[in-house]
Amino acid sequence: MNQPLPNTDDIDVVDLRIPCKAEWVALARLSVAAVASRLNFSIDEIEDIKLAVAEACTNAIQHAHGSPFIEIKCEATGGELRLSVRDYGRGTRPENIRSREPDDDRVGGLGIFLIRSLMDDVEYDVQPDQGTLLVMVKRLTV
Amino acid sequence: MERTTLDIKVNVREAQGDCYIVELSGEIDVYTSPKVKDAIGDLIDRGVYNLVIDLEKVRYIDSTGLGVLIGGLKRVREHGGSVNLVCTNPQIRKIFDITGLVKIFGIFESEDAATKALA
Q1: How far is B100 from chain A, CA to nearest CA, in Å?
Q2: Using the beta-carbon criterion (under 8 Å), do A55 and B63 form an inter-chain contact?
Q3: CATH of residue A125
Q4: Which residues of chain B does A22 touch, with a Cβ-Cβ cutoff of 8 Å?
Q5: What is the pLDDT of residues A122-136, one digit of tens each?
Q6: What is the spatial distance between Cα A24 and Cα A57, in angstroms, rounded to a whole number?
Q7: Given CB atoms, is B100 within the 8 Å cutoff of chain A?
Q8: Is residue A11 in some structural domain?
Q9: How confident is the model at residue B43 (pLDDT cuts 50, 70, 90)?
């Protein structure tokens, strides 16, 4: 989570803070889609990014009890978009969610499964009673 | 019967036999999916166990929307019923492919085909 970042001159940062409420998730995904469109991602890739950030926000709303807001940081470089989604509630560690089988009809775990499927890198950091930070990266395909 | 909320529209109509069509328009996410869940739940409470859910006008669906569809399918299966989907949007279809839900739902290219498959 504390990986050194490239020279900040090479990174465009967009910060967004939304209430930790369902009605604001659409704003988050549309805002992030606008950022992604600036990086020449394809329409399909932008849809992947939209869904991933929405799933991260939804996870916070459903599991981060007591978090007043969600912070979304978009860091855009020439080659990738790094998205950090942070809440300040109690969370569920993604590794505690069982993997899915092909004919699985369970509902739980779909969100994190989709995030892992749609993004190139996914990392998370859960601090007990201090919140969850989910960092995901989508790289431009050459 | 029609319900609307911020960006979801639910249109329910009777089809041939004991089948109902639930046509959804808009975006299904954590905010709008409860409206979809209520519409499907109302039908099941009325004894409708064969459903076609038409996603042709759905621009976006996330895991909460998938969860509502899975929940509906589980409920109707308890009564020997089934849920077929209509979906040709590649981006929506991709989500069903990724999650493996193509194996538990019948997914068709038209309402007519989905309805006939329930008969």
Answers
A1: 5
A2: yes
A3: 3.30.565.10
A4: 29-31
A5: 998 887 778 899 999
A6: 9
A7: yes
A8: no
A9: very high
